[in-house]
Amino acid sequence: MMDQATKRNKGDRPFYQPPENIPTSAEIVNDARQSIGRPLQVVKTKRPFTPREDRRSLFGPTSTRNPETRPPSAFSLTSRHFDGVDSRPASGTKLSPLPHRPSCTSINEEQTPRLPTEPDVEVLLPPKPPTDPNKASRKVPRARVIHSNSVDASSPESLGINKSGSLTDLSKQTEGSTTDSNRRTHSGPKERTPIPKEERGEGDGKEMPHRAPSQASVRSPPRSASSREVESRASSGGTKRTSSAGSTGRGGSAGKRDAEESQEETMFYTQNIAPRLEELVHLGKKREGEKLCECADSLYKLLQRENLLGKNCKQRSTILKSVFKLLDLEEPKVLLRVARLILAFRVSGNNLLNVCKLVFKVSRNEKNDPEFLRGNILELLSKTLSCTDHTSSCEALIYCVGAIKFLTGNTTIVKQLVKENCIEGLGQLLDGINKTNRENGKVNEQLGHILVQLTAALRNLADANSSREKFLNCHIVEGLCTVVDTYAVDGDLMLNISRIFSKITLHTDCCTVLADQPSSYKSFIHLLNKHLQKSDMVVRVCFVLGNITAKNDEARVRLFQENKAFDVLLSVLKLYLEMDLKAQGKEEKSDDGERGNKLNKREDVMIKVVRVIANLSINETVGPLIASNAQCIDLLLSILEYKDIPTSEELVLNTVATINNLSYYSVKTSIISQQQMRVIEALLKLVLADNMEGMIEASRVFGNLTRQKTVRDFLVQHKVDQMMVTMLDSGNREVVYISCGVLINFMVDEEKRPALKKEGGVKKLIEVLRDFGRTDWELASLVCQILWNYSGKITSTNACFGEQEAQDLLDLLIEYTDQDSALDSSFKDEETDEEMKKYYYETWREFYPVAEQLLHRLETHQSDFEPLENPGAP
Known about the structure:
two-stranded antiparallel ribbon; disordered N terminus; about 850 residues
């Protein structure tokens, strides 16, 4: 029974934590299958390192884009760049321009008295459009402006424009219309009463936001305004005209209910919103940043609570024009508060472009990153991605996504962006761009600029723990494959996508999705061929291909069968091998200061290409074809002949693993078999290099090549058999297994058997059988096979194995060939599950025939007498 202390300790262990010093069933099965399974192996390697950019810029310093056609990363931006007033109607329908523009700037200017010496000004009035479109328009005679207190029927003040666009004589209007030259008319869908001069704010610079509708009014012609007039109108509280900020007035007739709502809204604006706007402007002039931020947050919360954000707020234009004045400040936290208000109102056109530039400008400095975690600016940026038309607001999206790209360099912000559905927004934008390119049938360069920012942002978002599921759900992998097909010549874009794939293909589910894409293999091979000299891209594309072929056997076949795919891989390996040979002996400075060591990019490319070849060779159909490729084998052996473990460990080990996979196929056309002595000589360097990993990998190849007696003889001359015996002392299951595999072949030759006993190999094999037998029946079977080959000429058990060794071996074999005794010992662990029990039983059944035959031989030749060396001698 378990004592109380043991029970207490076991109970204190968390349920998810495995027992200490006791391997779980899954670990045992995995270890056994890796060390004793198929002799072919998948090669692993590290993901290519991506150095961090020192400066945040729209396009990196290595960009190949033409500076003249791409948007700039630096620019000046003030309140003057934002639109205050626009003549676009509330419906959003753009009016066609009038055929003629008067030479005077406004009617009110003509109403201003002039000195008698000033000459009269002639004004050309726009012609009346014909009622019949087939008739030519008549010329309208010029009208002379008469400066007097009375209104002439022919003067511009007495003429308006009716709904059809024709001129209307205002002097003939019904009762209730005005002819006073000191009053102005209001444009709009409803007739409005004229506003007195003092009420419309011409004296004090203020203007009432709303007026009650009247029975009749006329639409005034559009007027051009200078920037000073725009600022004065913005400071006065707005206008009824629609701007690019997007004020939306009501059109058509309005009922009593609408009028009552308008009064309530006007009162709410006057009592709650207007004071905050005045305070904002006041604090902005004083440049009191903290108070200004508090006031801006208060205004935002108020508008959000009353559901006045978006495009439905009637005072939207008025609020925005007041907010625009704060953009001349330089404090980042203030600018972000302002940008949040502007984005929340869903501006468009020039204002959207400039607010995206504003956010981009603030995000360029890493010190401002904490400010983006305050408020919901990240949520608004994510929403902008999905609700902005990429065709009409292309430049705005470039800066918007560019800002997100900068922010994704911050791990804390990345987590928040994932929560705010930024990946979904980027995925939707990606799909929209692909659809536009597909419909147009050609590549759009400006959309390519967006994609560069978008893919760079996705590259950083791919590091988040919860991002992989979103990548798959939003079909981003498929979308990126479409971009690869469309923009294959765009080096910047392809580099970003290769970086994304190099991250997400570390996971099996993403590898599966990418491998299932019909054009993925063709696209990757095309990229390698197109950008052969760009090591940054080539190394990542090869890494992705290595990930895809690591676990997917179908992918190995599809990649190898792709037209000229293997030839391109060999051309990459040959090019970078030749480049490395030319640079051999030259010192290279690392481009990566963070690693602190020299980085040979050419060697890194070779590592990734060799890994792809190793993974391809696992397939039983592809492997023999690669083993028969003379160029491939020559390149691999060339790497082993001039590279060594101390300076190029990963490249050498990957190359040996590839040769091991290829040496498994003993076909007549195998170049490995034809050049086996060259292979053995190259591998001997690893055995003598005092590097355990190198010795293990070389021993794998020895296990395949020692099927030939010439190879065995050569290795014995170099005492490799003694090394294999020494490796039996290793506590590493994999090392012991590999040593046993080589020793089995050595024991075929009778003249090589005495060395096993002389080096203490028999005793070590019995210890291996005792230590690993109950948990690894396949390894135990290998030990029995070695001893069976060794005892082929046996005459006496004691003479062959040694007296003590023979007795120990007999005891172990008797115990192991008894099913109850052997398997009860294997199942003594309480946590052994049914799968593990089944695995033990199946492997024991394979062990039993070999052990039973060896036991029978031992028992048959068991005797206390030593055989005579020369029985016939006297």
